[in-house]
Structure formats: structure tokens, C-alpha cells
Amino acid sequence: MDLEYPNLRLNQQRLHEMVQQIYKNNETQPQGSFYQLPELARCLYYLRDPQAADYLRQAAQKQAPSIIYKTAMIDYEAERINWYRLAGDRATMQRLYLQLLYKATKADNSDYVRYQPQLFAAHFWLGNDRECIQLYLQDSNLQEWSICGWIAQIAEARLTNNPQLALEIARRCAREIRAERVEPWDHWAMYWDLYEICCGLLDPPLNIDQPLASDDPLDSDGRIDLAHPAERLIELLQAEQITSLEWAIYNNHDEAEVGYRLYRLADGTSKPLSEGFINQELERLVWDFMNFDWAGALPEYQPHGVYQLDIANAMVNYVGMIWNEYDYAEEQAYEINSLLYPVTVHPANPELYVMYLPEDQHQGVDVAFWHGEQRGY
Description:
Helix content is 46%, strand content 16%. The protein has 377 residues and is α+β, with helices and mostly antiparallel strands.
């Protein structure tokens, strides 16, 4: 089957670094305790370390079945089942599911509702795909959550042996991981779990911990040499015939930042970063580069706006201002405002309005200012 597979892979180097950081953080911990146990368990799992199963079981045991948050009861039974799935402990998964089912059947009507999401997820992790799909179709509350829809579709792909459907959800998971910079060990690591399951359903299956073929320069330990990340980034971008990177950050005063990220090719077209790059090294470098605090590096601090990396000149420039629809309308209403130049709706995010500044007003800094301290997907 000729399919365009997703190109997201696990960052082995970053996983190793996280493990070492966790061990270092635990040097001063009391005997028998372990700080960041869930994170360590997940890192070891994705590194396919033989110790992973033991740490995954410990993480499951330390996870409380439920907690009371304010006035609501939040359950973690399905999450515990997933921990045991990662550990390969099928018997314990089944035992926890039966306990969960018993509690659900004994609950009154008002309490039973909160067990539905747990039963739905438990069926999925156990591979009870018919039950998972049936529960999703019967429960309108589950249908309100897009992630539940993805899970139901993965269950359908698994049940009907539909690699095309699995590929569609794998791409969605990859886009979400990139857009939200989800690490394999963090709170939203379930996206990685779903992505791995989907990739296993493809024909042929896609191994997410297998490096992509590339000409990555490796050091003596088999890791990518980041001694000169800025130079290497420019080199790889030029090799891909990318002329510029552009990204925008907008703060809506509720401490929620939105924006867009894209790159432009020599043929004049542009693509969103959510599609990723074939070259794994380039993808990591680009995401790290855009994660850097360029606002603090520029001559005049510009926390939000439009930034561009000019590949030919190796310069990062602050090139414009950005608003959402509400703030743009407010800006237009002011008698004295900053709308000195034409404002356009940006094609990468039609909810945002962009005003590009004349070239002589760009503020810039050499890309060499970036040293590649941060890493991510």
C-alpha cells in the first residue's frame, strides 16, 4: 500500500538526557522514595529498557485510583490500566478493569456517569474494541471530546484491520504532539501512546523508535553533534531549499498564547511546521530554534508579534505586529493607534491579523545568538 507515512519519531537523545536529569534530581531523595517516577518509567519504556516494566508497575501502584478535587471526584483507574499495558501485565489490567466495572455497577445513577469515561478508556487499553465503540456511540458526553472520537476510531481501525483509518489518526496525533510540544514523559503523553498504537496498525507497521535515514553528523557516542547548532540549522534549511521560517506569537491577555509557525520554500510556497520535516535532525533543530526567547535577544524587547529567520542572511527579524479579531477591532476604534501599515488576515491562521513593518524598521539579531540549549519535537 502506497501511503505517505507520518515522519514523527522518538528523540532518543532527549530521552537519555531526561533519564540522566531525573537520576540527578533524585540523588538527594530519601531511601525508598523516587521523585519523577512516572516520567522515568515512560522514558525507560520508550528507550525499550529492560527495567521499564518494573518502574511502570511502580508508577501504577503509586497512582491513586481517584482523588477529590474541590467538590469533584477524579478517577485514574483507566490510567492505571494503561500503565500496566505499557508494562505488559495483562492479568493486572483485567483485574483492575473488573474492579472498575464492579464499582460502576454498584454506583447510583448520578455517580455512574463519571465511570463511563473510565470504562471507555479501559476497554480501549484492553483491546475490547467492540465494547469501546459501542460505549462511545451510546454516550453523548464522550462524543463531546475530540480525543474520545480519536480513540473510538483507533478501536475501529484495530477491529476492522483498517490501516488507512489508523494512518489518518496517526497524522492527527503527530500534529497535536508537534503543535503542543508534547514530550513522551509528560502529562499529555497519552498522545504518544495513541500515536504508537496507530503506527503499529499500519501496513507495514511504522516503528516510532527507529531513526529516519539521514546524513546526521554523529559524535563518538552516536549522538548528533550540536557544537554549532546555528550553522547546522542554516546548512540543513538550505539543503531543503527553505528560504525562511516564520512564526508568530500572540497573547490574548488571558495568558494563553496562540499563533502560527510555517516555512517558505524557494518555489514560493509555504508549509506549516505541523507537517514536520523528513530529516529528523532538522525537525528537532527548527523546533528548538523557535522555542528560544528571541524577544529577549532583540535590541528592543518584543514579547509578541511576527518573527522571521532570513536563511540567506542568517538573521532573526521581528517583522510585524499581530492581533486576534477582538483586539484588532479595538485597535481600529482608537483615534490614535498603531495601524500605520496595511493589515492582512494571515493565511496560516485566519483568526489572526498581521501588520508587517517596512524592512527598514525590522529589528534583528544574528542566528548565531542561539546555542541550541533547548530540545523538543
